Every structure is written in C-alpha cells, then in structure tokens.
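Please decode residue identities from the backbone states below.
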C-alpha cells in the first residue's frame, strides 16, 4: 500500500465524518460494546473480505484496515484474516473458525448479505460483535461503514447522461448491474434509475452473476444481438471489472459508446485515459477502512461508538445501526490528477505505461 494513500486517511476521515448526519442514540439500547468486558490493546480482531477478483480488497482495504488496527492498539492487536473468494459457504465456515479462535470482534464484508445472517447471529451469541464492512450484512450487527451507495448510482447515471448529451433522446442504453447477492448492487441500481429513468430508454438490463467480467461480457453480447449495434448509445456498468468485459464485447462489435464504472481500478483509469471507458467512481478507501478499524477496536475494548459513527442505517434485520458513510467522486479524464494521483493511489508512471504514454500526454498526464 502506498504511503501517500495512507497519509490522506486522517484528513479524508474528518471530511467523511463531517458529511454524515447528527449523532443520536441507536434504537434498542446504547451503542457501547455491552457484550465485551473492558480490554486494553491486547485484542483479537477477525477480518473477513468477500473476494479477490476486484483489485481493491487485497490492494487497499486489507492493508489499510490492518495498519489502522495496529496503530490504534500500539501494535498489540492480533489480526486474523481470510478471503472468501466469492464463496458464501466458505465465508460461513470462516466465521465459524473466527468463533472457534475466540476473536473479540469481527469485521465482515459479506459475500451474500442475506445468507450470512445465521453466521452473524452465531458470532453475536458467542460474544463477538460484528462490524459490517462495505456491504450491509443481515443479522444483529453492531456497526457499519460503507459509501453512500445510492449516491454512487446517481453519480454514475449523471455522468452517463452528461456523456450522452442529445443522444440520450434517440438511442437506448444497456444497464449492467451487479450481483443480486450484494445489497450494494441494489442501491447502485436504485440511484442510477432515479437519474436515468425518463431521460433515456433502457433497452436491456441485467443483474450480473457474481460481478464477474466474463458474465458481463456475455450479457453485453446478448444485448448487442437483441438490440442491434446501431441502437446502443451507452452502457451503465456498475463497476470497473464488468466495464472491462463490456468494452471487450463492444469493441468486437465495432461499437464505441460511453461506459461507466466504479472503484477506480488501475486498468479502468487507463481505459479512461484512452477514452475506452468514460468514467469510474473514485471511492477513497482510507476513510472507510479507518472507520471499520476504529469501530472494531472500540467495540473490542467495550467503548462507545458515539464519537466515531455519526450516522445510522437500518437493514432488514437491524435498525439504527451506528454507521459511517463516506462520500464519492466521479472520475473522468478531467480530474485524474486531482483524485487518484493527488491522493497517491497511483503514480503517473503506473498509469502511463508504454502504450498509454501518448494518450496520457494528450490529457496532460506527464
């Protein structure tokens, strides 16, 4: 993890917390870690991430969370980590292992937010409080941090409409949403539809199994076959990985239209540089990761979350969960310098490798 990306965490955290709503007592009781005895820095934290196909989890989330936990505990905390590799059953087994290992608190990014409910309950029954990370897991979670996911979808939809201009009146778009097992995908879709509906016709729409680029590629090929290549004026893609698969299908069919994305993956930033992808959503992972670490350490030590979590979110099985929601930015050619480069996520040299050098020069990346 690059030092600069970590260095912005404190400032970004302050901004994100300031953007959240006013603090109130969480419904159904206070938000002290009542199930944990008061502890010092010698705590055991479990960290479960959902998959490794998306670059962010291993490259950003895991190292940022681990570094902040160590910082908050004077390097005394023990961190136990596992990645479920998009397998909900495997993740349930990993929760069981964390229970067996008697972690004090669990940071959980669910593969399937509904399927994990029983596992969350088992952890809580064992005296382990659960921080839902990035995806709002079902069950009696104690805290949650993510981005404003409806706003992510709105940001994508607004950018696509801007790219389409007058073409929005005449053609059709394809919507490539994320996996139905991910509650964030439903929120991205909601936000996007709130902007796009009535402004452009949706010719085909898909929920993409497991967020896989190859599934998005197959769906895009089907959409091209059904609609005809001259009828498609743009594509809403819920994330960058799928955008890559979509763009491959579009190029094979000789179609050049704006495509959205999310996560500011390096390959996506390079596609934005060349114009193959119109935009991505830049989500600063440092404040999200730091919030998860701070809430987990506080819960493990039996401390209140009032000074950390200024917002509240409800799921189908938990109400008024103390939460931190982090704002996002639309990433286009115009602001690469002011976002991922300025924040130290990538260097110009990393983006502007061999075949991208001339395109970088054209947009002022040198």
């Amino acid at each position: 993890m690059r030092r600069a990306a970590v260095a912005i965490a404190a400032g970004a955290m302050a901004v994100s917390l300031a953007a959240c709503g006013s603090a109130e007592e969480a419904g159904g009781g206070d938000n002290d870690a009542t199930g944990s005895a008061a502890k010092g820095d010698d705590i055991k934290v479990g960290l479960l991430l959902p998959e490794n196909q998306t670059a962010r989890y291993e490259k950003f989330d895991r190292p940022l969370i681990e570094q902040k936990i160590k910082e908050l505990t004077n390097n005394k905390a023990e961190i136990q980590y596992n990645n479920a590799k998009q397998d909900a059953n495997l993740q349930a087994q990993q929760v069981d292992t964390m229970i067996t290992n008697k972690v004090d608190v669990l940071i959980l990014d669910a593969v399937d937010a509904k399927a994990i409910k029983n596992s969350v309950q088992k952890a809580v029954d064992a005296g382990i409080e659960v921080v839902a990370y990035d995806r709002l897991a079902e069950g009696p979670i104690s805290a949650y941090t993510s981005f404003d996911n409806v706003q992510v979808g709105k940001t994508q939809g607004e950018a696509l409409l801007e790219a389409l201009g007058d073409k929005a009146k005449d053609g059709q778009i394809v919507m490539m949403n994320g996996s139905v097992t991910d509650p964030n995908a439903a929120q991205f879709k909601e936000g996007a539809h709130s902007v796009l509906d009535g402004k452009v016709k949706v010719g085909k729409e898909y929920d993409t199994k497991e967020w896989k680029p190859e599934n998005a590629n197959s769906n895009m090929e089907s959409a091209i076959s059904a609609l005809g290549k001259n009828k498609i004026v743009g594509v809403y893609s819920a994330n960058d990985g799928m955008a890559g698969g979509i763009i491959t299908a579009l190029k094979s069919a000789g179609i050049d239209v704006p495509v959205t994305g999310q996560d500011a993956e390096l390959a996506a930033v390079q596609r934005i540089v060349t114009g193959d992808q119109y935009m991505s959503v830049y989500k600063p992972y440092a404040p999200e990761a730091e919030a998860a670490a701070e809430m987990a350490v506080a819960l493990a030590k039996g401390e209140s979350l009032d000074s950390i979590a200024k917002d509240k979110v409800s799921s189908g099985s938990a109400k008024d969960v103390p939460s931190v929601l982090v704002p996002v930015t639309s990433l286009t050619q115009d602001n690469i310098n002011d976002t991922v480069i300025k924040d130290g996520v990538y260097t110009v040299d990393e983006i502007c490798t061999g075949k991208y050098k001339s395109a970088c020069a054209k947009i002022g990346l040198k």
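Observation: Confidence is low (pLDDT under 50) at residues 1-36.
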